[in-house]
Amino acid sequence: MYLITVFGNLLIILAVSSDSHLHTPMYFFLSNLSFVDICFTSTTIPKMLWNIQTQRKVITYEGCITQMYFFTLFAGLDILLLTVMAYDRFMAICHPLHYTVIMNPQVCELLVLVSWVIIVSLFYCTGLGVYLSSAGTHSFHSSATASVMYTVVTSMLNPFIYSLRNKDLKKGLKKLFRKIIIKELQSPSSTIQEGIQTSA
What's the rounded Cα separation, in Å, for the pair 171 and 163? Predict the structure, then answer.
């Protein structure tokens, strides 16, 4: 699931950055959300996988604090970016004639920057309080299940939710794959080209 999350979100980032038709506020926010989702899952999942592999469930105090900080940071950024995306769609639907003036690139960049600043200042303290709360009130199994659902599944589903029903993003992904295949076919050391020559 972790690899699907990273690969799916990375595809969205690459498709948006490589296709000029996708250089709009909605896709700018979507690629930022994909980046944050990669970072969000990368704060806990690699350590969890290492713990499962080695059968060691130990983390240093400094490692725990660092992991909690980045987990809270990226979780909050996820929430704020979704809020900004909702605002973007609201402006596009309710004020379509003023949309390009209101949601210009500078405003989009400012909204993302403000999201980062708000998260650092607001969610760091509240997330720390949640993680330092008493563990006796929750069962280990239900907490572990909820953690995996929140950290892995939602970030894994975001690329599917935002891309499968979106024709523009599908076109952008097709263009990206076409560029990769053409580049591979044109390279002199292409394994695909060697396969075609040997079969002919």
Answer: 10
